[in-house]
Structures are given as structure tokens and as C-alpha cells.
Amino acid sequence: MPRSLYLVASHPDAPQAQPLIDALSADLGTRFGSDGRDSFRDWQADDSRHVFLLVCNDDEAVGCGAVRPISDSIGEVKRMYAKYPGQGIGRAVLAGLEAAAWQAGYTELWLETRVANVEACRFYLKRGYQRIANYGRYAGRDNSACFGRYLGPVPASSQPELLPSLGNS
Predict the structure, then answer these.
(1) How far apart are CA 17 and CA 14, in angstroms?
(2) Least reliable range by pLDDT among 22-26, 101-105, 154-158
(3) What domains can be seen in the chain, in order of their start residue?
């Protein structure tokens, strides 16, 4: 796979996003019995604190992820997905989400994944996330693993390139 990855601000309803979200939902449903499709139920496209990014390689959308507000200072990472594992797509999505979250005014990111999703737990720990108490609807759920990370300014040299929004086109 060529290494020409770039980020695009988008929307969960964008046609380029749908195959990725569908693949993620199918994988989660098969592996864990729940597809997570309700993540965008309260999505507000006109709110700059709701972030949705696609990672593209040439003309193909190969990854996605979102941040939505939990509070004024805390954003929640949702729907992280890489179409081709082990290609740096997940790292690009997360780095883009962290930079966009900082620019949107968040100082911290939280997320939830399944305890059984060992690969995801390792991925977040390697990227500086720490296990935190289960929050919100995940409180008291033994099958959930919640993680958090404080954000800071991202040096310009390490920020992924973010191209203008695709919108719903």
C-alpha cells in the first residue's frame, strides 16, 4: 500500500465514511455482540467540538475516527477504524483527532473499548493513554476498558496534514 496518507475533515454521513463505519460495525458485532452504531445519534455537524476525520490514501478512504464532547474540556474518541491493520492508519487517525481536539479546546481525551479488544487496549497504551475509571454509560460494566490522555500543544512538525472538509459530498 503506498504511503500517501492524508487526513480530511468530514462527517459520519459522508459517502466515503459509510463503508468504513459499516465495516467497523460488522467487525464489532461479530467479535463483541454490539456494533456501536449509536455513536453518532446526537452528532451535531455544525458544532466545531464534534470532529470526524477520514484518513485517505490517494482516492481511497482507509480509516476514520471521531471526537465528541463529554464536557467543555473533555472529548470522547469514537469509531476509530483502520481498513488495513498495521499500515499506520490508526496512528494517523489518532494523531489527527488529538490535534483537532486540542484546536477545538479540549484538554483531555477519553475513550472506551472492550476489555476483550486486546489489540485496541495495547494500541492506546502505546500512545500514552492511561486506564481510567469507567465513565458515563460504561460505569459498572466489567467488559468495558476506559482510557484517558491529557493533551497539549502539538508541534507543527508532528501534526498530520489536514485537508479541507469533504462534507457530505
Answers:
(1) 5
(2) 154-158
(3) 5-163 (3.40.630.30)
As a residue count, the chain comes to 169
Lowest mean pLDDT across 36-40, 57-61, 147-151:
36-40
**Residue 136 to residues 89, 103, 111: CA-CA distances in angstroms?**
28, 24, 11
d(CA 133, CA 123): 18
List, as own/partner pairs, every contact residues 89-95 make where C-beta atoms lie below 8 angstroms and the sequence separation is at least 24, other chains included: 89/5, 89/55, 89/62, 89/63, 90/63, 90/123, 91/127, 92/5, 92/7, 92/55, 92/63, 92/160, 93/7, 93/53, 93/55, 93/63, 93/64, 93/65, 94/65, 94/127, 95/154, 95/158, 95/159, 95/160
Those residues whose C-beta lies under 8 Å from the C-beta of residue 147, and which sit 6 or more positions away, are: 110, 111, 112, 113, 121, 124, 125, 129, 130, 131, 132
Quote the percentage of the chain above a pLDDT of 70: 82
